[in-house]
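Minutes, project check-in

Agenda point 3 was the complex the collaborators sent over. CS summarized: two entities, 641 residues total, and the question is how they sit relative to each other. Sequences were read into the notes so everyone works from the same version.
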Amino acid sequence: MTRKFWVLLGFVYVLIFLGLVTMNSGLVALALPLLVYLGVGIYYAPGKTRFSLKRHLSCETVGRGGPVDVTLEITNQGSEIEQVLLEDTFPARLQLISGENSKSALLQPGGKVELKYTVSGERGLYKFEEVWASVSHIFGLYQTRFRLTDPAQLLILPESLKLRRVNIRPQQTRGFAGSIPSRVGGSGTDFWGVREYQVGDPLRKINWRASARHTQELFTNEYEQERIADVGLILDARQQMNLVTPAGVLFEYSVLAIASLAETFIKDGNRVSLLTYGYGIDRVFPGYGKVQQERIFRALARARTGVHYAMESLNYLPTRLFSARSQIVMISPLGQEDLPAYIRLRSQGYEILLVSPDPVDFEARAYGMLESTSFAVRLARIERSLLLRKLKHLGVRTVDWKVDHPLDEILYTSLRRQPIRNRLQAIAI
Amino acid sequence: MTLTRKALLGCIILAPGALALAFGLRGQWIPACVALVLGFLCWLGQRRGWDWLVYLNLFNFLCLAMIGALLKAWPGLVLVGVGATLATWDLHDFDIRLGLAAQGSAKESEAADQVAKAVPEGVTREVADRVAEVVPEGIAREVASALEQRHLKTLLIIFGSGLLLGGAAWLIEVKLNLAVMIILALGLVLSLRRVIGALRREKIEKEKSVDA
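CS then shared the predicted structure for the full assembly.
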């Protein structure tokens, strides 16, 4: 019943009450037109209102910013409705580009209303659930508001960047030919060593210079085999590590980096898996090819930061999920307390590549460099560079990524083979 | 101007007019003037779109009718005034609801119109125009118009029957003794209690639905 009903009923009571008190039949008579009005309203009170709802999304998976058309078809399966107001509640993080998500209409039995609108949004998993229908009946004395559901999901995949080949060198590779040096002699392109000639070796591989030094023996050049590798991607989704500033969310850069790296590694034919560590453990099992890329992108679309008391530090990282002595690529803003975890991973024989979006620089740029904070920023930078240096000493390859710089360039410059002189200098420092 | 608007304007004139006449015929000029002033205010509110004034007008005119009943103003005209006030109040609300619904339907028909205007291959322009005329806008207008007529008809019946019943109640005098009066008062109190209970239940249900 609406406010209109109660107001009218109130007036009826007041009139009858005053009529009884003053013993004036005129006052009671005045209440009669109102009573007739109410009576007719009650007589035509709504029966069962039944609707059927069909929701259709133009696509269920879309890239970031891609428009998605949402169409709702509501059919009246009950009696005639004078007015129905339909409101579709779409997730708040989506943006309405065109169309309207609410509509008022007259509906005859079997009549249909169509709501059409277009939305777009950032990476994420979005759930469309309920449509609210407010039905008004004769004289507007009754209004029924109820919920219609036809759930649908929209997955907005993360963005990825085209990267040049990322040089990784795990201790163990897989049996199939690929692009990663396998630390095993055989057929390849890079020189690996010299061994004694064996029957069947092609003549062009004989090292004539070494053979000339011996009278009775021939020697053959060996080349480093290039194979594919197991690459385990770890996304650090711990809330305390990922900053949220007015300028943006650092975690989104981590997702961008990991999506780009996943695409690059898969393109090179490697077996790639993903582990999201933070609010829990979300895992994509190792696999090859485009289907695996799709799986990883879907998992990344769902990824969010979160708190889990058992996962506040990286010490509980389940290493059993990765092949022994394989390559681990970690995307993490890096904290002081993470160092033991890296030590453990290294001691277990994993090759680690750490891509670390710089939280200090990110925060300093977001809030601006103030005189009062400049000293603190400087200290934080020193602390971070010391931590990165410690990791380098452990044998972890680190990429310090200031997120306003292009990732491809940073990866290329950080991971290219340095001249021996520079490497020695770096170690000495 | 739609039928509802015309009827609304008629009721806005009729309600204060009838009340003013009811007072005027008894020589009570002050309440008659008040009725006219309130009528002007009602018309102004309607013109300016002051929706909040609608409830105030209902209250004002009902109070004026009560004064009329107490001052023994012309009974038939007072009843006409009350009926017209009620109709004004209802038609204002109906007009808003109809406008909202028509907006939604018009948007739909515009879109359908655009689709219909794009003449598909193998169909002549004439045929397409005829289809566009008949199919989208026609249905929405027909439905709205039928609804409007039905609503006005129902309101007219209520108005008439309300007047008849009210007039009869005014004219027929029944002597009630104290016991009947007490029973009636008790009935009133009990029904009021039920109403309050229903109101409470509704409030709780609303809160629950909001929580959900």
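Noted in discussion: Chain A has a mean pLDDT of 86.
Follow-up: revisit at the next meeting once the mutant set is ready.
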